């Protein structure tokens, strides 16, 4: 299979896009490390759903904590030897309308969101890249958002963090290409996940689906298929790309 012998670390792998990505990477032959923050039972459900062709495992870490990130990567490398594919999928999406959020909450949401959605992925990349260089290369795939382009008036820190993650991806694609490390970003819109369910099942659900050119939103498997494609040899020239998987809903009409 295309990813035989590859070790893939998937953050936020206990549900949604992360679970679908773990499943498809494993089906392509990778050994998958499922990262989770707190829901060990859900991470175990992901593990139980993976084909038994690899030494898959789950590992816990709070990505807001740089020390826990370092321990996570050290543990993976100690057990598996390296990390060939890093998927930065974990994220947080907190309401933060500027005129309705207290100053104290405004600051705290900024800290949590940037630490989880941008600084955490940057720290993970920094921890993983030396091992990729030593192994002769690797793939880094960052899950961003259409919100980086459209703006997020009620989730301000989220939109800014995802725009930053796009820029981080492009900068590191340039910095790491000579080491055979290829960095791409995927920008979904709403996806049929637990995190999106309150919005999709709420009063704006029909409107949200109507924002796309195809009359529906993506499901996790669609995003996971693209992650797996980008993780596979033969896609090197796509490094630095930010690829939309949002039914053209990032376009304003």
Automatic annotation (TrEMBL):
Top-level taxonomic group: Bacteria
Pfam families, per the entry: adh_short
The UniProt record lists the keyword Ribosomal protein: no
Domain Ketoreductase: 6-211
InterPro entries, sorted: KR_dom, NAD(P)-bd_dom_sf, Sc_DH/Rdtase_CS, SDR_fam
Similarity-based family: Belongs to the short-chain dehydrogenases/reductases (SDR) family.
Identification of the protein by name: Beta-ketoacyl-ACP reductase
Organism: Asanoa iriomotensis
